[in-house]
Design brief:
This protein is an all-alpha fold. Helices cover 69% and strands 0% of the residues. The protein has helices at 8-24, 29-41, 46-59, 64-76.
């Protein structure tokens, strides 16, 4: 890992682990946030990322860990006021 970014292989392993966590608890805000981050930063599926980030915020609204990748996503899609 360089610069704090996961390799693609590790990102897919993380996504699978988080999907399993979501099967056990669909309202797991941290798992939703990780899958959203992977959708945004690795798969470039920004529509999915947007939906998952919103679900993550609803599930764990005060989780500061979720705010950084969500802010990066909002900036990347030009939603500066929300970021």
């Amino acid at each position: 890992m360089s610069g704090g970014r996961l390799s693609f292989a590790k990102a897919w392993v993380a996504e699978e682990a988080n999907n399993q966590a979501l099967e056990a608890n669909p309202a797991n805000g941290q798992a939703l946030g990780v899958v959203a981050h992977i959708a945004y930063d690795y798969a470039y599926d920004w529509d999915l990322a947007d939906s998952l980030f919103l679900q993550a915020r609803e599930a764990s609204a005060f989780d500061a860990w979720q705010l950084e990748p969500y802010g990066a996503y909002l900036t990347a899609v030009g939603r500066y006021e929300e970021a």
